[in-house]
UniProtKB/TrEMBL annotation:
Family: Belongs to the binding-protein-dependent transport system permease family.
Membrane topology according to the record: Multi-pass membrane protein
A Pfam family recorded for this sequence: BPD_transp_1
Annotated source species: Dictyobacter kobayashii
Gene Ontology terms describing biological process: transmembrane transport
Claim: Transmembrane is one of the keywords in the record: yes
Residues passing through the membrane, by range: 7-25, 100-127, 139-166, 186-212, 248-274, 294-320
Identification of the protein by name: Peptide ABC transporter permease
Entry keyword annotation includes Cell membrane: no
Length: 329
């Protein structure tokens, strides 16, 4: 419990640092979001008072930086992230709320599938080390992982969507036919549009899970307690799952938690290639439009999810590894 409390204090400090950087970095970017918005209004005459009001709405002002920082913290406590320039006059919280479910549904499910299948496959490959499975699977997956991710995505789009028309070219659903809801047609359309991006994510990350689990499993199989379990004549399945795999999977827990934390922001390339309406694509559009408020909101959500995922990883370690509970290495 003392360890968890100390880690919680560390994450609170890390959250404050993330919030501070989130405030500073967008203000170092060149350009003025208010001027960018006025440029879209085709040269309409705007008074200085109107320009000042627009800057305040977009989270900017002429006040000293520490006053702006204090107001920024007050707004965060009220979950007020400002107005989105690229979706004016929609609040940033509404924009993020519209895009997060798409990213969590696609990338979250894909990461869980990749982690589960990759860990099981890596465990099996290590248990059958020296066999044909161990000789074929790791090299093939290593070759696939060496392919740049966006090349793999573009190749799938060109072959499976453009040439063979098996899957839609992009988007989250058929916008011309369905409205967002729980109708069967909309759900089928979402699944159809999400299959190809999901396959790309799973293939792109599968090799790392397999190789990490295999290497950790091979090391664990040589430990004394595993050899003792085998000497006792315990069933192979019990030795593999209860003795070897339970300890071998510990290094993958941290990687998995980081992957879960990056679900919200780590899908930028996926959503750009497939034009998928997730938070990564919203962040990309926000950068193009100098949408400071939306950039800050997206980075804040990413920071919170990463810290929360790492905290869950520490909690999982506490329950899975008795050495952590006892304060030993």
């Amino acid at each position: 419990m003392r360890r968890l409390l100390s880690r919680l204090g560390f994450y609170l400090i890390a959250l404050w640092a993330s919030i501070t950087l989130n405030f500073i970095i967008p203000r170092l970017m060149p350009g003025d979001p208010a001027q960018a918005y006025l440029a879209k209004m085709q040269g309409q005459h705007i008074t200085q008072q109107t320009l000042t009001a627009l800057r305040v709405q977009f989270g900017l002002s002429n006040d000293p930086i520490w006053i702006q920082y204090g107001q920024y913290l007050v707004n965060l406590l009220h979950w007020n992230l400002g107005i989105s320039l690229s979706n004016f006059p929609q609040p940033v919280t509404e924009v993020i709320a519209q895009h997060i479910p798409w990213t969590v549904g696609l990338v979250g499910l894909s990461v869980i599938i990749s982690f589960t299948f990759g860990s099981l496959l890596g465990m099996l490959v290590a248990w059958k080390r020296g066999s044909w499975l161990d000789s074929i699977v790791p090299p093939i997956l290593t070759f696939i992982s060496a392919i740049p991710y966006f090349w793999l995505a573009l190749a799938f789009v060109y072959v499976l969507s453009f040439m063979w028309s098996w899957f839609p070219m992009g988007g989250g659903y058929d916008e011309l036919t369905y409205d967002i809801g729980w109708s069967s047609g909309f759900i089928i359309s979402v699944i159809t549009h999400g299959i190809l991006p999901a396959i790309t994510i799973v293939l792109g990350s599968l090799s790392s899970w397999v190789l990490v689990m295999r290497n950790s499993m091979v090391t664990t199989l040589s430990d004394d307690y595993v050899l003792m379990a085998q000497a006792k004549g315990l069933p192979e399945r019990r030795v593999m799952l209860n003795y070897a795999a339970r300890n071998a999977i510990l290094p993958s827990i941290t990687s998995f938690s980081i992957s879960l934390g990056l679900i919200v922001g780590g899908s930028l390339l996926t959503e750009m290639v497939f034009n998928y309406p997730g938070i990564g694509f919203a962040l990309y559009n926000a950068v193009l439009n100098l949408d400071y408020s939306l950039i800050e909101g997206c980075f804040l959500v990413i920071a919170i999810t990463v810290l929360a995922a790492n905290l869950l990883s520490d909690i999982a370690y506490t329950f899975l590894d008795p050495r952590v509970r006892q304060g030993r290495g």
